[in-house]
């Protein structure tokens, strides 16, 4: 006879799925008979408002990350241009 706890254990080396017992934003308990609003595959929310707020937060974070990546790219480009100009200014031509 199989143990009742056999399927309760999480498999080794596998990430666990988030539980559907609380809202991911406000942590409000989700009842078995209540609607659950999902986002990003497996993230539960208690209401459309909480889900929409999370979506807005994610959009803001994505824009901030894109701007930061753009600034880093501009800095790297400016740095490499300055370095190449520095190397070019060292070149000396000798007239014979």
In short:
The chain has 96 residues and is mainly α. It has 1 helix and 2 strands. The chain has a two-stranded antiparallel ribbon.
List the helices and strands and how they pair.
Blueprint lengths: L36 E3 L3 E3 L2 H42 L7
Antiparallel strand pairs: 1-2
Q: Could you please describe the fold and organization of this structure?
A:
- The chain has 96 residues and is mostly helical.
- It has a domain of 66 residues.
- Helix content is 44%, strand content 6%.
- It is built from one helix and two strands.
- A two-stranded antiparallel ribbon has the order 1-2.
- The N and C termini lie far apart (98 Å).
Question: Which descriptors apply to this entry?
Answer:
6% strand, 96 residues, 44% helix, mainly alpha
What separation lies between the terminal Cα atoms? Answer: 98 Å
Amount of helix: 40-55%
Main beta sheet: strand number and arrangement?
2 strands, antiparallel
Q: Count every beta strand, where a strand is a DSSP E run of 2 or more residues.
A: 2
Task: Estimate the mean pLDDT confidence.
Answer: 80
* Broad shape: rod-shaped
- Low-confidence spans: none
**SSE succession:** EEH
Helix count equals 1
Secondary-structure-based class equals: mainly alpha
Rg estimate, integer Å: 27 Å
% residues in beta strands: 5-15%
Main sheet: strand order = 1-2
Family: Belongs to the FLZ family.
Organism: Digitaria exilis
Protein name: FLZ-type domain-containing protein
Keywords: Metal-binding
């Amino acid at each position: 006879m199989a143990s009742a706890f056999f399927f309760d254990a999480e498999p080794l080396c596998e990430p666990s799925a988030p539980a559907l017992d609380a809202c991911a934003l406000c942590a409000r308990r989700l009842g078995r008979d209540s609607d659950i609003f999902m986002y990003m595959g497996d993230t539960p929310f208690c209401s459309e408002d909480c889900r929409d707020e999370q979506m807005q937060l994610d959009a803001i974070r994505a824009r901030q990350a894109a701007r930061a990546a753009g600034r880093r790219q501009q800095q790297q480009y400016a740095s490499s241009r300055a370095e190449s100009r520095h190397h070019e200014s060292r070149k000396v031509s000798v007239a014979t």
